[in-house]
Amino acid sequence: MVVLQYLAILITYIGLGFGYLPGLRMNRATIALVGAALLMALGLLDLPAAWRAIDYKTLIFLFGMMIISANLAAAGFFRLAVDYTIRHIHSRFGLLIVLTFGSGFLSALFLNDTIALILTPLVVGIAQLLNLNPVPYLLALAGATNLGSVATLSGNPQNILIGSFSGISYLNFAKALTPIALICLIIQVGWLWWLYPEVRSLRPDLKVEPPHYRILKPLLIKSLLITAGLLVAFLIGIPTAEATLIAAGLLLVTRRLKPERILQKVDWDLLVMFSGLFILTEGVQKLGAVEWFSRFVDTPLNILGVTVLLSNLVSNVPAILLLHHLIPHPDTQTWLLLAAASTLAGNLTLLGSVANLIVAEAVAKRGHQLTFGEHLRFGLPLTVVTLALSYFWIY
Questions:
Q1: Taking Cα atoms as reference points, which of 152, 158, 166, 156 lies closest to residue 317?
Q2: What is the rounded CA–CA span in Å between residue 186 and residue 357?
Q3: Predicted local distance difference test score (pLDDT) of residue 362
Q4: Is residue 155 classed as helix, strand or coil in its secondary structure?
Q5: Is-contact 364 371, C-beta < 8 A?
Q6: Local confidence band at 9 (pLDDT 50, 70, 90 cut-offs)
Q7: What DSSP designation does 212 have?
Q8: What is the chain's mean pLDDT, rounded?
Q9: Could you tell me the pTM of the whole model?
Q10: CA neighbor of 177 nearest in space, from 192, 193, 162
């Protein structure tokens, strides 16, 4: 029976790493859920133990941020930001800078996967309107959503997990890692300038009629006010899950939008995947398999290496769930290193983060291609440099 339990865990993590299982129509959400169900079927966990393993605060935080992002998108906030970019940026290098820091900033406030999902078709559209090669700008988007999300607990799912496990406040986390995010974004701009000569131009030769879109002004004002209030709540120390759920609840009180329009934008797959992963990790811990990693996380440098490796093998969220049991609770530096390493490792390969895959898949649907090799040429040097920077900054 133990052999079958280990086999179920192994197959599940392989599926999570690749995002599918050969011959089966399963995504990461269904793989995680089926893996959790298998562990219960094999007697490793019962239903009450599986239920207790789910970190409801993380799920509430994720759900609330998705509701907020959906309202901002419905109000036209993200298209307004793109419109501002088109109207005021007239050079190729200027577009690269604004896209990098704009998407990085938005990813620090909201979930990076959401920003990648919303902005990718807009970036492709801008590139087509301006007759530009979309690849460097899409790499800028994918990289910046990862780099910018380093800065805050709300930037990406793994940071949300780390905030829940470590107890680090939103403000303290941002104070520690925002400088790293800013420096990394600057490094990315320089690296893309070196890789793609066509983005270096400072000539004001980009002129295009901005696309037409609709702004729901009352909803936009309401969404921005509530989002600003949420950020204030984070800064003054109100628990993130409670504050986010209250903000989401206020946004759902409306006469303008049908609730299904917002709820359809919630990434239910991600919430299901998280639930399955919590149960799966509880099973791994019960088997004692997590202790195998303990010999490799005895120094900060080893923690960095193991985190980067696991983040690219099984993705960053499962990596955090596997490693967090081995991190001393009051050791803030190690938690910060874990957050930075798991996020920055997402730029290493095209498969390193969900944001990368979102960009690649959205581009493919529009007749372009972002290949594994093209991304590796961009991501490998960037990841090595930014990981070294984060290590020496934190320690």
A1: 158
A2: 23
A3: 65
A4: coil
A5: no
A6: confident
A7: P
A8: 85
A9: 0.79
A10: 162
Residue reference for tokens 């960009």? 359
Q: Collapsing DSSP states into helix, strand and coil, what is residue 1?
A: coil
**Residues 110/69, Cβ–Cβ less than 8 Å:** yes
Angle, CA of 178, 179 and 185, to the nearest 5°: 90
Report whether 203 contacts 91 (CB < 8 A). Answer: yes
Angle at 317 between CA 390 and CA 175, to 5 degrees: 35
Average pLDDT, integer, range 52-61: 87
Confidence of residue 225 (pLDDT cuts 50, 70, 90): very high
Contact 12, 49 (CB under 8 A): no
Query: In which residue are the tokens 């983040």 written?
Result: 311
Contact 323, 357 (CB under 8 A): no
Q: Taking the mean position of all CA atoms in its chain, how far away is CA 107?
A: 8
Dist. CA 143–CA 201, nearest whole Å: 21
Cα torsion for 85, 90, 92, 95, to the nearest 10°? Answer: -10
Give the DSSP H or E segment for 55. none
Strand extents, DSSP E, the chain: none
Q: Which phi and psi (to 5°) does residue 119 adopt?
A: -85, -25
Question: Tokens at residue 32, please?
Answer: 């995680």
Cα 243 to Cα 265: distance, rounded to the nearest angstrom: 20
Q: What is the pLDDT of residue 17?
A: 67
Say which residue the tokens 């780099």 belong to. Answer: 147
**Does an H or E element contain 371, and which?**
none
pLDDT in tens, 270-312: 788 889 888 988 887 788 766 676 677 778 888 899 888 888 7
Q: Which amino acid is at 202?
A: L
**Given pLDDT bands bounded at 50, 70 and 90, which one contains residue 366?**
low
Q: CA-CA distance, 144 to 104, in Å (whole number)? A: 5
**Phi, psi values for residue 307, rounded to 5°:** -65, -45
193 neighbors 200 (Cβ within 8 angstroms):
yes
Distance CA 15, CA 236 (A): 41
